[in-house]
Amino acid sequence: MRGVKGIEEPAEKQKKDAAPLKKKDDAKEGLQEEQKKQEQEGGGEKAQKEERKERWIIIALILGAAAIISMFAFGITVRFALRDELSLELRPMDSIVRAKNNEAVTLNFTMKADTFRECTAQCSFQFRDIGNSSNDSIIWRHQQALPRNQEAVFSAEIPPRGRGEGQQFYILEAVCHNRKSLLCRTGEISRQASSLVALDYELTGEDIAKREEIKEPLEELLSSLQSSALAIKENSILLTRIPITADEQAGMLSEQKRLKEIFDSQAKNAQQLQELWKRYELELIGQNLTGSAAEVSGIEQNISFFQREIQEMIGLGNENVIMIKDLAKSFGAVTPIMEVFQQEKNPANDLKIFSFNAIVNETRKIYRTLAEGSHYSEKGIHGNLAGLRQKMAGIVESFRFSQSRGLFLILFGEAQLRQDRIRQDQLGQDQLGQKPGANTSGTLESSAPLGSSVLLNISAPFSCRALGESLSRIHERNNISLTLRKTAFNETLEDTAIDSLLGARRAEADQQALTEVIHTANSSSLDDKEEILAMAGELLKENFSRAVLENDYNLTPDELMSLAQLNTTAQEDFMDANCRKPGFEGSARPDSGNLSLFDFSGSIFSLRQQEKPEIVLSENFTLPEQKPLCCAFDRCGSCCGEECFSLPDAYPVLFVHGHTFNDDNTPEFSLRAFSKIQKSLEEEGYINGGELDLENAPEMLTAGEWGRSPHPITARASYYYINDYNIGGLTLVTQKHERIENYALRLREIIELLQAKTSRKKVNLVAHSMGGLVVREYLNLFGGASVDNVIFAATPHLGIPPGIAKVCSLVGSSKECDDMKEGSVFLTRLNAKKFPDGVNALSVYGTGCTMESSQDGDGIVTASSAKLGSGEIVEVKGNCTDRFNSNFHSQILDPDIYPETLQAIIRFLKGGSNETAASG
């Protein structure tokens, strides 16, 4: 049993021992699974890290690429903003061609677009006739895309003019813009270029040979007939202006009929000559021309002489009406004069009243003849009225002279008394100097007044009463002087020595009084001033006695003058002739009842037109126009000669550009600022000359090749160009790193070139920004003999602010910018000089952009700096819309945005008044 039990115990023991081993294996297995699980989890994290890393790399690559693209795009944007993206070069810039009127002319042009590498220019071309403003003026059109620096060559043909001779302008216009693309970040802003062509066309040799032989005599004949036809019709109307009651009209109507019959015969012959001219049958014209010319010349002279007779007769009738009206009108004005004569009764005034009544009665008789429609003679009436008017004028003039003479005598007498009062005030209570044996108890003091302290109020009319009062005061003064003399010189009252001495002193007193009268009259508004001055001057010319006598009386000159007697002869004579004569009772009275009988409402008293009437002739006695014609803008007229050389309306206009902000841009960039204004001026009759070709020196040109047209020409030119005479010929070199003084020297060459092309004495200048300073320096250096008007647009006459000057120096020429700084040596010198006389100036300035130190201006130039010290000014109100707060400075020249600038330029060039403009 034990053996069996012993055998069973190890098995159980093994069982017991196996249980922990299983647990251990299970733990190990769990650990492995956990480890495996951790390894699996760790691998996932690693994969996630790798994935995140790849993602960040991709993001970084994308951001880097975006940054590169942004920087590239920004660079392109800045490039387009700062540099000129498109520049056009059209050749030739202008040309002149000559041809017979039966020849067509073919012109060749080349066009080159200087654009950015990324861009292609799209251009449209048109060649048009400036003389025609309709759609028919477009001779040729063309469109073409121009890649960078690619040159296009094309031709345009001017058709034959057909007839006549003269000059005609044509213009080739090119409008281009860059086409927008991914790399060409253009705003597709248009650029313009043009080429002006002047065609001088002439008669053919055959035309000249056929016409020249008989042209002048035939034109003279037809001109005479034209004048005669006009005069015949004028005379018919002029004759109706002579009243049928005038005896002269009947004879004139008969003469008019006779002359008309002779003229009609000659007019019929002239019509036949015109038909022969149209058919070029010149031999038949020559056979009839000599005899017809003599007859036509005679009839023209007779008709012209007869017309003068009619006009003289109409004028005579008008003079009669005017004289009647003037006489009737003067009756009312003369009535107060007659009343004066009636109040101041004397024989002379009574005769004047009688003459006045006779004039009134005779005038009334003539008036009734005309008013009642009785037959009369214009010449007879004219003689009668002329006599009556002369008599009336005599009455009025006599009265006016007497009034002036009387007022003068009052002024003279009062001046004498005033001088005497002044002397007495100076003498005071001093006693007279004592003469040996003289009574010294008397003094100059008197209780009676010796004269008023001031002159008579000379604005008052003359009256005999006033003259009498003045004369009375003089008598009173003379009595006092006589009393003083008796007191001081009672024992020598009849002493001739004292009489001579007092006479000399009295002459001096009279001269002093006359001088005072002249001074008083000069400082007054008296109607009789001139007459009074003449009377006073006449007396001053008389030889007053100024004998220097020995004064043994111990009297001063003032004391002697106080003792002298004032002369009253002139006053008393005047009183006798013009004032009431005691005891005279005249019987004449003004016939005032006749003054109300004149009524001028009838047509007979209306003035008739003496001038020739305006007549439109149906007859045409002229040859086709043979003078050279210059046509522009639907208007044709005779081409200019020397008469246009000094004609202000024909002076050319030169546009002078401003500073090129970016030194890398070409001069065309600055010149472009005026292209719209230049185009707009065509509507005002200015021919667009585009850009002036500076490769042609004045001596290389045909003088006055642009000067035949009476229309002014506009042109742009750059002082940045300088001529370079090398072995290959004349070329242009751009030079922009200069002082403004050097640019003024080049401007002189440009002006001389434009004068040579136009044959004009002067030019008009329109300058923008720094260009205005270039113009002013030119005027300081060379004067204004070649300049008529100057228009300054946004010119910094006092300089640009420091901040603007600093930016200017960074991107532009430092020399120019230094000259334009506020307070620069150049500006100080420039503004110290006077603006030249004879040159009219206009300053156009902008306001609306706040600048440094809160100053108002256009973003570049302050308003105060843009106003020239002389000339007119025009304000243009606007605003700056770009990020640099400066674009108003250039946009002020854009007529689409600020038309006020263009309007001011037009007004000033045409001599109109310039008022301050405003823009919202």
Give a count of the beta strands, DSSP E runs of length 2 or more: 21
How much of the residues is beta strand, in percent? 15-25%
Main sheet: strands, sense, barrel: 7 strands, mixed
Q: Provide the residue-averaged pLDDT.
A: 81
Helix content estimate: 40-55%
- Number of contiguous helices: 20
Spans with pLDDT under 50 lasting ≥5 residues? Answer: 1-10, 429-459, 913-920
Rg, please?
Answer: 52 Å
What shape does the CA trace take? flat
Key terms for this structure?
920 residues, disordered N terminus, 20 helices, alpha/beta, 21 strands, disordered C terminus, 7-stranded parallel sheet, single chain, 7-stranded mixed sheet
Structural features, described:
This protein is α/β, with parallel strands linked by helices and 920 residues long. It is built from 20 helices and 21 strands. Strands 2, 4, 5, 7, 8, 9 and 10 form a seven-stranded mixed beta sheet that branches. Strand 9 (629-632) and strand 10 form a beta hairpin. Helix 6 (378-427) packs across helix 9 (529-541), helix 7 packs antiparallel against helix 11 and helix 16 runs antiparallel to helix 17. It is flat and about 180 Å long.
